Amino acid sequence: MIRAFSAFLALRYLRSRWINVLGTLGIAVAVWALIVVIAVFSGFIGEIRGSIRNATPDLLCTGLAPGASFAPIDAVLRAEQDVVATAPRLRHHAMYFPHGRGQRMQATRALATNPLAFDAVELVGIDPAAERSVTDLTHWLERAAGAAPEAAPDATREAGVTDLQRPFDVPREIEEQHALRSGASLGPNRLLAASPGILVSRRRMTTSWLERGQQLDVVTGRFERAEFGTQLLRVRRGFAVSGAYDTGHRILDETTAFVGIDELRDVLGFCVDDPFATAPQDVVSDVAIRVRDGADLAAVALRLEAALRRTADQAMAGARVLTWEEQNRVYLGAVGQERAMMKLVLFAVMLVAASLVYGTQHMTVMQKIKDIGILSSMGASPRGVQQVFLLAGLVVGLLGCGLGVAGGLLSVHWLNDVNDWSRRQLGIELFPTELYALDRVPYAIEPVWVAQVAFAALCVAFLAAWFPSRRAARMDPVLALAYE
Amino acid sequence: MTDTLLAAEGVTKEYSIGSRTIAVLRGVDFALARGETVALLGSSGAGKSTLLHVLGLLDSPTAGRVAFEGRRVDDLRIDERARLRHARIGFVFQFYHLIPELTAYDNVRLGSMMDRGLFAWLRTRRALSARSKDLLERVGLGERTSHRPAELSGGERQRVAIARALIAEPAAILADEPTGNLDSKTAADVLDLLFGVSRERGLALLLVTHDEALAKRCDRVVRLHDGRIVD
User: Fold this and answer.
1) Is B120 an 8 Å CB contact of chain A?
2) Where are the domains of chain A?
């Protein structure tokens, strides 16, 4: 029960002691920081998850044996009622460099041994028509095309593909135009062999100074059967940049280049046009899967995995089906961990605020020793005396909490306006959006988090006030009355 | 019901300072009857204030017992003693002991809040506030209700303290040298007030003092010397 005199005196003490504003402000700043920073962090995480989601199929069947054939796997996958579409994929690591640089490098030993002269990339072979049914391929191509109009003084500098339906096609005139402009030889008959297309990310196109139509030498290796076991065979194949894509997922964009799946099969020695080949012609390393909207991805993945392992086909024995979150588990986990660390760091601000509340309440108790004796002589119980200082601390916490929550929510609401104003008027960008390729500062207010912060602030204020209040309650009234 | 309101039987009070033990009260027997006024005389250090604190349940005896209305009370739990102190005993101190942040009115009103929960007090606050104002009128401070202690004279502060002691309608007032800090004219006025309200309300009054002349106004005089009652 709250004693009337405790509440009455707590408010009077607060009113007459402006030092309590310090505690209130401390709590308010801590709550404000916890709400604003975590809201922005959550916004960023939301953006990241969104971009990952857009760049990743619902499910990915992986862990297939080398040389696995798509057709039997596809049959198993499509037997699951929640699977809407599938698309074959073939992954292989490679390096590339603009055509002609290799010859120049041979002339200079230093350059030839410099690994930075190459760009490492994961080549992903896709079938555009099938891929479109499982991912947002068209949207990735449109995004890249629309994102770089200012950097397109001529056709070759455009980032977009010529035909969205056939993204690996490179119009011959563009390839020739680029070859002529770069001074490359077109051969004795001024004819250029048509090169298969390669899609690089818009980011890579910018950072590596690539242009549409530009010839790239892709170098990779594969094992081939030899007289005694296997031997490593170096493969070098020319591709022409057919355009750019932009999934929005920075890591994928910086590490991946797409080529036609048949081209990659050919590079890796799976002769797709050879009717006498022993290896399957539809070899895949992964299968991208789209499932029915609203289906439980984890449950479908488990069912598919079980179905694949039930078959007698050795190629599917080690197959795993990963949800889009599992495919990016490490990255998403790291981002989530960063947010958790940030919460921990910011909670230290709350502890500073708690020390302010403790300090001010302790000071009040020490200044009010005689009052404690007076109250005891009037019949106040130790619990009632304790309530005076506890309530004062709680009111400080409540006010600080209210101010912090209101300030935090308003700050988040006006975040982009404040950021724009600061950039225009002061030349300082509080949240550099360009760093993250964003046009606005993302934020997400999580009501549960706001409630948790508010509750924690009240608990902290309560605890900080509890220790001085306990001291007040334990005072000997006779000594307190005699205190000078 | 006995006629004795407050009684000390063989009360001893000792304080320990390091390895030394100092006996301030040594087997004190004392009784205060209803409506009786008693002066407790003694030199400094005789143990007058300590006896007052023990009788007022602010302090516990080392040995002996304290009874209120015939019931032993020194062994009550601390909150029960606080409740009894609030309801039945009023204190008046030499240095007034008012809360400096509060006005005269609020200092008196505070006394009505001690045994009530916040919501219970809010329901009855009109009546209790009116009572506080009446008491201030009674002690002659009807016009000074909104003044803080720092804005009042010594005599006025002591009147506020008396009004505060009366707010819970106690059965006894324990006054520890209530005029010790006042000039003779003001002291006389304050004493008149104390004896007046004691008579009006039938309150027992225990007055700790050095002043023989003042002591003679009481029904009985008890002398304390070196922790013992000497007559």
Assistant:
1) yes
2) 4-50+336-482, 57-327
